[in-house]
Amino acid sequence: MNPARPTKPPVRFADSNEINPFQLLLDLHDHAVARMPSSGLDEILTKLALSAAVVSWWTRCQPSTIYSALRAGADLTDITKATGLDAGNAVRWWRRWTDIQTRLDIGECPSMDPGEVRAIEPRLGPGVVR
């Protein structure tokens, strides 16, 4: 369940970060479209707060989306073109995320199969396999 929507647009990151990520995108769009050149400080701070929250949410989601793309057959070149990340950063993000996911145990069931991760690693290019 999503928290109740504030009556005023947020001017702080902490408040923006509580909004559903998809709603954040809509709010940022609506705010940007409605903003006038003569907007005051609160309107400018709202844009900053919404933008920062959007970046934060989607940055957290990116490693799992990279993993989904790799599972679907993408290679590292596809990933770098889609994300704008350089290959080293894409691999570091993915590896940090998979390291955590492969150790996560929920009710004696692993969150992610380490064998699947090992099968993907050679596709990331020379020097990336552990």
Jot down its keywords.
single chain; 130 residues; mainly alpha; two-stranded antiparallel sheet; 6 helices; elongated
Multimeric organization: single chain
Helix and strand composition category: mainly alpha
* Estimated share of beta-strand residues: under 5%
> Number of folding domains?
1
SSE order: HHHHHEEH
The pLDDT mean sits at: 84
Task: List low-confidence stretches.
Answer: none
Overall shape: it is elongated
The Cα radius of gyration reads 19 Å
Task: Describe the sheet with the most strands.
Answer: 2 strands, antiparallel
Placed side by side, the strands forming the largest sheet appear as 1-2
Number of strand segments:
2
Contiguous helical run count: 6
Helix content: 55-70%
Q: State the end-to-end distance.
A: 40 Å
How does this structure look, described?
This protein has 130 residues and is mainly alpha-helical. It has one domain. It has helices spanning 13-16, 21-34, 41-71, 76-83, 87-103, 114-120, and strands spanning 105-106, 109-110. A two-stranded antiparallel ribbon has the order 1-2. β1 (105-106) and β2 (109-110) form a beta hairpin. The longest helix has 31 residues, at 41-71. The radius of gyration is 19 Å and the shape is elongated. The N and C termini lie far apart (40 Å). The model has no long low-confidence stretch (mean pLDDT 84).
